[in-house]
């Protein structure tokens, strides 16, 4: 198989994985909110549907997106500063995916299910939108970022020093 054809197939799988993963991440908060409002058989049906969405569609799509993205890093030799910032968006999306998995379990407990109001719904949707838009912006704009700008981020302890003002309870 020609390298160019293989590259396009991997890119197609990557974009498809991202689309399914991100689409599911946009739908889930609204399904979580609905879970707080239903009971009985409808609650069980909704639980089954949400678990199926998360386990059978979103998680494999996330796996394909991350796996093919990793392959593309080496196929395209994408070792530039903007790409590192794009990966921050991917990390946020992965964190939201883990949070969603925990919510799938917590919101559908038989005894004392958790609630998920409209504020949480829109906050999770907004963070998902922000992560997806960040990823898209970096991929499409490919901004020129000098390595000197980001040099401080790769020094030991730089992440702690950067996040400490945002998370004061993490004082050393």
> Termini distance?
54 Å
Q: Estimate the strand proportion.
A: under 5%
Give the number of helices: 6
Binned, the helix content reads over 70%
Low-confidence stretches: none
Overview of this structure, please?
It is a single chain. By secondary structure, the protein is mostly helical. It has one domain (3-144). Helices cover 76% and strands 0% of the residues. It contains 6 helices and no strands. The termini are far apart. The mean pLDDT is 88.
Question: Which features characterize this protein?
Answer:
0% strand, mainly alpha, 172 residues, single chain
Short note summarizing the structure:
The protein is mostly helical. It contains six helices and no strands.
Write the layout of secondary structure elements.
Blueprint: H1 3-35, H2 40-76, H3 81-107, H4 118-141, H5 147-150, H6 158-163
């Amino acid at each position: 198989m020609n390298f160019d054809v293989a590259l396009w197939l991997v890119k197609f799988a990557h974009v498809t994985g991202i689309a399914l993963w991100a689409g599911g991440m946009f739908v889930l908060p609204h399904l979580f909110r609905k879970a707080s409002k239903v009971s009985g058989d409808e609650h069980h049906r909704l639980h089954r549907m949400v678990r199926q969405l998360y386990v059978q569609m979103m998680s494999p799509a996330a796996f394909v997106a991350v796996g093919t993205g990793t392959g593309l890093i080496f196929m395209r030799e994408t070792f530039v500063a903007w790409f590192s910032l794009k990966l921050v968006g991917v990390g946020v999306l992965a964190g939201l995916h883990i949070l969603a998995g925990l919510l799938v379990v917590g919101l559908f407990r038989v005894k004392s299910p958790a609630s998920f109001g409209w504020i949480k719904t829109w906050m999770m949707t907004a963070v998902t939108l922000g992560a997806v838009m960040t990823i898209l912006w970096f991929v499409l704009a490919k901004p020129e970022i000098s390595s000197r700008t980001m040099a401080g981020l790769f020094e030991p302890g730089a992440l702690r020093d950067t996040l400490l003002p945002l998370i004061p309870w993490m004082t050393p």
